[in-house]
Amino acid sequence: MPPRKKRSILNSEDSEELILSSQRKKKTVSNKDANKSDVLKVDSLFGELVNKAGYIMRKGDQPNLLNCDQAVFHKDLLYNLKSHSVYRLPEIAEKFVRGLEDHIEDPLRLKWSLLYTQTVNDCETARGGHQDSLVRLCLNIEELQPCLIQLLTEKLLEAAHDDEGSNAANIPNLILANLKWLDYIVDSDTLTTKIVEIIEGSPLKVQQEVVGNVPNIINDANHPKMAEVLCNLYDTTPELTPAILDSLAHLTLPKENLAEVFHSVLKTLHAARAEHLHVIVRFLLTNTQRPMAYQVLSDIREKINLPGDCRPPRLSPKKSMSSSIPASSKSDPAYETILLNNIKMTSITNKFLSANWLKAIQDVSDVASVNPIDLLMLLILYEAVPSQRHPIESIFRNKIRAGLFTDTVLGKIFAKHAAALKENFEALKKISSLLLRSPEPLVSQIGATLYRLSFLHLGGHYRQESVLALLKHLGDSSAVRHTTLTLLSALAHEHTADMAKFSIFLKGSMEMLDELSMREVKRLLDVVCLLVFSNKSHAALQDELMILVRKQLCHSDPKYKHVGVLTAALIVKNMVGEDDGESSTNSTLSDRSIMNTTALKDAENLLCLVMSSTSTSPTAAALFMDELANISLREIMNNKLEEFVCDKMTNEFQNNFVTEIEPDAHLPQEPFAMVASWNLDTDNKDTAIALNLAPLVVKAESSRLEPSDKKTKLVYITPQFRLLRMLECRIQDGDLVNIDALLGCPVISPAPEVLDNFDSLVATEQHTALSCLFYTVNWFRELLNAFVTQKDREIKNRVYKRLEQVIEIESLIAKLVPKCSNYVPPIAVFDLDSSTAMPTISLSKAKRGRKQKTGKGKGTKGKGKKANIETTQLGTQACSQPVSQVPLSLATQSQRNKEADKNSEGQLSLPEAEFLLVDLNCKLEHVLGTSKRASPLGNSQEKSIGHSHLDLFSPAEVAQHIIQIVKPLCVHMEKISSFFQTMIADNDGIIDAPCLFTENTKPVIKVNLQLFTTIYNLLSWKGLQQEQNKETLLSILRIIAKKLEGDVVSSMDQEELISTVFRYLSNFHAAIVDLGTATVLVQTLVAIDGLPQHEDFNDSLMDVMEELLKKEWYTTGGERDKGTLFHHHLHVLLQEYLKQSKDPLKHMGMLCSEGLDKFHAEISKDHHSDTFPTLNNGTNKSLSSINSSSMEDSRKRLLKWNTAIKILHTLVTVLKNYYTKQMLSTCLKFVRPFLELFLRSAMPVMDTCFRHHSQDVLVLLKSVQGSTRFLQNLCTHSKRGEERESEEEGNEEEVEEHDAHSDVELDDEGDQESNVDDDDKATDYSNSF
């Protein structure tokens, strides 16, 4: 191949500077310097005339000279043309141009005819050292211009088709530069035609240059014609898109033509190439008019495909013009950055664009319609337009609440548009911080997701910025700190190597330990210890931690000692790695073995140090054992270290809490009689072991609540056994044969007669007896958690018996606790702050009108962390094998069969099944339930108290674990449904038959409620809607759908499965006999309706709810159901009924017309509606409270408002005729937002309709006035009533101070008097209207 010639380095800008004259520093050549040998003699008319005018042409590759100013040359040349002695115009012009044509046949002469002209040195009148080129000087002469343009266009086409490297200069570019900005164009139409011919006949490269220079060459009059040509070219030649749009943007076009061009460009936006997008979007935004801005921006965000979303490789901006080889897809971010910068600049320039961008993004209501540009534009505008920050923050929160900005959506955006996010990182960081601080858990979680994705996808220094921003949140509220530490922990465990680079920052955050709670301290220490011990290069930080933990363990303050215990446990976890596999090489294995041996020795020494330091602080020792149990449960520890700890715990537990008793041994009788009770090993007649509980309780009870209590070891009996059984389970591969004797051994506890005569005991003896019961039930709970996984039949039977005993003891505690004032249960949760107040059970008389809550079946339920069994050990003992794994074999037959099943081995009684289901639902609600809004003042009671082991597992893991019991749950639901259907059929369909509601069916109803609650908790988990949990969702749906369709469900898709599950569960509504279960069923159906990809269930759901509303509900005594709980269930049912309705006002009107109208006609004492029996004198407040919330969907039509006012008038009439305090409070609470909505929305509608529908508007206003007048009187009356009540309460308090010894009698009388007063008030009030 012939060698390529040197390419020109001249671009368009350079050529313009070389051609046009400019006021630069003079760099001239004197006339004398122009050697005659350098002067080019041109023997033609052209040469004669230009030489005569002062133009000197030179040989070689050097510029031509001019000995005068170009204006003088122009004047002289024009004069010579007109005054020539031989030729006349236009003949002379043609001969002049032919001479010029002959002159520029030489490429070198052509180049210097198009380039600048140099001024001679001795010319003092010239404007500068460089003046216009020869061609341009001639073009400014009108007589020469037409012929010269013809010549130049021919030369341009000729040069365009030459080889790319054949010319030393870019001739087409030079010719175009000479044609630009001419002083006058003689024949504009001809010039335009020539330009069009050049565009049509030249190659792509020259086309781009010509199109780009079009606005600077042709006259404004020819712009419409050229725009038409460019539009046709736009449709046929996509490669010219940037040049065409750039030219169109600079053309002066009529509005009609511009609109046509605009819509043509917008129409083809979806097919635009990545490298052209920034030009196209800039053209669209620049030419967008204010009235059409919203529609245009909506179209842009729908049609635009950002370069990051394009899979085919693109050219980078720098190489697209100079290389035909496609660049890799890594070049795409450059195009995207340019595009977004163009959008940013146009939004700053035109303020109305930013507002319309936000409106277009805000109106997106479907997750499938969310585009990456939505998030990117919000970030761009947040930083570029400060005045729009509050609306942008609101849009973010609304998108998150609506489920549009999810983890999956954001993850895809970060994965494909990292470069754009880096450009807007400051805005991203501010938004992340703002969302993380939100009191709404869902919004706060998305803020954490933004931080996590920034760390994972942005890389570089952005990771450090993200980590530092997260550490700043440790000074925020407790809810924010919890979310922050959870995120840091997840990053540290999943991306240890990346996070280890920032260990020094995390280590510095330990200075804030004093401001954190114990759970937060644990999270932070876990992250720090993991990162510090993950890399050998952090040896200095490891030494600092070891020194710190020794100081903390020796500290006298319990809080610092507890922190030291946590630090030591976490150091042990991270210090010693798991055992090496056999696949390692011998040398590597030897080195690791030596390292592990040294680390193992250090870990054992640290464990011994902790045990000695906590020997006088049992709460710290219990915390240490709980933490080691957590590590053993979730982490992989060194086998030798596990065996070391297990031996220590076994010996210590046996020495401290286990004793041997002879069959005829005499147990202590002080302060009361003690016996070895709860024994399951009745066949053993020899010496047996027993849990030495009561003597230890008696010894410790006198000082349990005092600081000296630190010396008793009884508090860590269950934590120590928990650690022991977990280590045994790990070491023995799940077999607990070494400790199975503890399952059936007796417990030394108070004799039964002591508990029977509980009232006769003194206060200290009562406290001791109750503590024995609390320790016993916690011990049994831990036994259940330990042995529930064993397969041996005998062990299973013992587990069933222990479960029965747990229920028995809890019932006994519930009966005895109210008799013992100011009793504090023993501590059972140890990872709490020492500043947390200890709860007490006080029986002091409550205020008048409020009854003291007493425990029923589960002990007294106080607000403290240890006031009942549920909070003492229910959640604390939760582990990877929950109690609920015991097979649920429900007995749903007749009473005699149930009694037989209850006593049979291997099956559960109804109370036991209820106990397990309540326990399971408590855990599911904690893990899978929707978190509530965090209080801005902080949460004094942590939600995770009692669930420390359960919190080790993610919601996805828990949901996956629960799948195995879905099928048994469905079986039991079917059995109970069949049981009630049979009973209803036997009683001829009479729901309130005597045999249907009895004390024997009450446990079945309770179990049925818990079964439906379990299904609801599982299906309502928001995580099922996420893509990563799709398999879990399909597994649950297949199990449930299989009960209805059989094995055919294996071939069903998600839509068919959801439809089948909906039909299966909706079939249960006919056999439900209590409103609580019906409400849970409706909530479950609503949760199914919220799952993705299914058909419309609205009609079926409305039918089910309407049938439930038309049912009569009864108590187990056969009486019509009523009360606070019933009203709550009815409120939820009505709320869902109207929320799911497509026309809420229509259904509200139906309830009022068919329900309340017939309710008014009743004259009996027990007022109720025949159509809707649930609407009665006690439940009307539930319907009133729903009224205002149903108006959000219809505000514009007068007819709708007429219906709404009729509903309001009906409800106010009910309140007028059947006044109660409950209805009064409901009315005052909900009527104000209704009236505010009326003033804001209905009044403008009535203003518009008054001219044509004046009578309807007047009737509507009169109806509103009648209701509001009554409500005004109601408010006045209620205010006076409160003043009278406050005066009466003040008088009663004075009487109570003098009669404290007869509190109970006075309270009963006060309640009766209060009821009488209320009745009198109701009578007087109804008569006053």
UniProtKB/TrEMBL annotation:
The gene is FANCD2. GO terms for biological process: double-strand break repair involved in meiotic recombination; homologous chromosome pairing at meiosis; interstrand cross-link repair; mitotic intra-S DNA damage checkpoint signaling. Coiled coil: none annotated. It comes from Chionoecetes opilio (Atlantic snow crab). Belongs to the Fanconi anemia protein FANCD2 family. This is Fanconi anemia group D2 protein. Residues 845-866 have a biased composition (Basic residues). The lineage of its organism: Eukaryota, Metazoa, Ecdysozoa, Arthropoda, Crustacea. Residues 318-331 have a biased composition (Low complexity). Residues 886-895 have a biased composition (Polar residues).
